[in-house]
């Protein structure tokens, strides 16, 4: 937040300008120089701030979901938190990865291309040790993985990818399928070295072991879904989903609402004198013929033409015609 000058400081500045102690042109030049920022074309920023914020929010949800899943599966303390979200050239990401690590390469079908999840060996072997009945010791033996250990680790990573898919459901539905398990990043060439990628780093703790998990998303792979990462469009989609759910709920409750239905047998007009003289057994002539259809009303509105009858000794009516909305009933 910019500093707010006091009145005395403002007066002193104006006095300096008037006496020539401070050059106004020099101040303008300094302000202009501050606005100029260096730009490295090797580190092209392909993701907007909105998109980076959306990616961060998605993977914060991924961290929460994966913490719950791993805690139940490994039966030990698990903590995942998003440490950073950075965009950088793919070559720089590969150089930052340890020479021997666990690289889970997977395809986010139907998106074209491959993504990678890099898991620090301390974390990977701690999880493997827990699944094999141990205490979660971080034995580092990347170069000597047995076939059984590799298979168990692949199954564990596929479970993690299911959580990854669930975290992205609010933006895009895809089916991540594990393709390969690498240990040397030099053999992994997802995209060209200068391609911009966004790297999400998770600070991870499994029992007594700690390390980092990094997910690398190349721009060229997720480019087709980037427009959906705009906060404005995302909020619109969320609002649309909420409106649809509210509409369905409203329709559901309306369908269960009870409304009074009445059937009019006919009408008659008599004088007050005739009304006062009515006795039990007297007959009142209606203006409705026996063969004519009766009118069924819903909330005093004429809706159906019906025919009277009986169903299992109960009085009933059968709908013979649905009356039009513009029907005007004269009462």
UniProtKB/TrEMBL annotation:
UniProt keyword annotations, A-Z: Bacterial flagellum, Cell membrane, Cell projection, Chemotaxis, Cilium, Flagellar rotation, Flagellum, Membrane
Matches recorded under Pfam families: FliM (PF02154), FliMN_C (PF01052)
GO MF annotation: an example: cytoskeletal motor activity
GO cellular component, one term: plasma membrane
Domain Flagellar motor switch protein FliN-like C-terminal: 253-323
InterPro entries named in the record: CheC-like_sf (IPR028976), Flag_FliM (IPR001689), FliN-like_C (IPR001543), SpoA-like_sf (IPR036429)
Main localization (coarse): other
Location in or out of the cell: Bacterial flagellum basal body; Cell membrane
CDD domains in alphabetical order: FliM
Membrane topology according to the record: Peripheral membrane protein
Example GO biological process: bacterial-type flagellum-dependent swarming motility
Secretion signal, residue range per the UniProt entry: none
Family: Belongs to the FliM family.
PANTHER family: FLAGELLAR MOTOR SWITCH PROTEIN FLIM (PTHR30034), YOP PROTEINS TRANSLOCATION PROTEIN Q (PTHR30034:SF6)
Alphabetized NCBIfam families for the sequence: fliM_switch (TIGR01397)
Record's protein name: Flagellar motor switch protein FliM
């Amino acid at each position: 937040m910019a500093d707010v000058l006091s009145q005395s400081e403002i007066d002193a500045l104006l006095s300096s300008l008037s006496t020539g102690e401070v050059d106004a042109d020099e101040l303008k030049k300094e302000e202009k120089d501050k606005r100029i920022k260096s730009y490295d074309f090797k580190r092209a920023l392909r993701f907007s701030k909105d998109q980076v914020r959306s990616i961060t929010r998605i993977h914060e949800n991924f961290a929460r979901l994966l913490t719950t899943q791993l805690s139940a599966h490994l039966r030990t303390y698990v903590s995942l938190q998003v440490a950073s979200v950075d965009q950088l050239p793919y070559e720089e990401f590969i150089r930052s990865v340890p020479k021997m690590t666990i690289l889970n390469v997977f395809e986010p079908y139907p998106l074209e291309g491959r993504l990678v999840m890099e898991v620090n060996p301390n974390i990977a072997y701690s999880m493997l040790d827990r699944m094999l009945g141990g205490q979660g010791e971080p034995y580092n033996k990347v170069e000597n993985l047995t076939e059984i250990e590799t298979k168990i680790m692949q199954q564990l990573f596929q479970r993690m990818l299911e959580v990854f898919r669930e975290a992205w459901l609010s933006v895009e539905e895809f089916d991540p399928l594990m393709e390969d398990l690498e240990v040397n990043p030099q053999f992994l060439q997802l995209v060209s070295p200068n391609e911009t990628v966004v790297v999400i780093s998770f600070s991870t703790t499994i029992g007594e072991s700690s390390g980092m998990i990094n997910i690398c998303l190349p721009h060229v792979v997720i480019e087709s879904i980037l427009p959906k990462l705009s906060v404005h469009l995302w909020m619109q989609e969320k609002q649309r989903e909420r409106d649809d759910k509210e509409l369905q709920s409203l329709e559901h409750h309306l369908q269960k609402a009870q409304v009074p239905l009445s059937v009019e047998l006919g009408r008659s007009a008599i004088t007050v004198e005739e009304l006062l003289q009515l006795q039990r057994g007297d007959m009142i002539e209606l203006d409705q013929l026996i063969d004519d259809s009766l009118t069924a009303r819903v909330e005093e509105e004429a809706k159906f033409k019906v025919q009277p009858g009986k169903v299992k000794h109960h009085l009933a009516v059968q709908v013979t015609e649905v009356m039009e909305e513009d029907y005007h009933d004269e009462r």
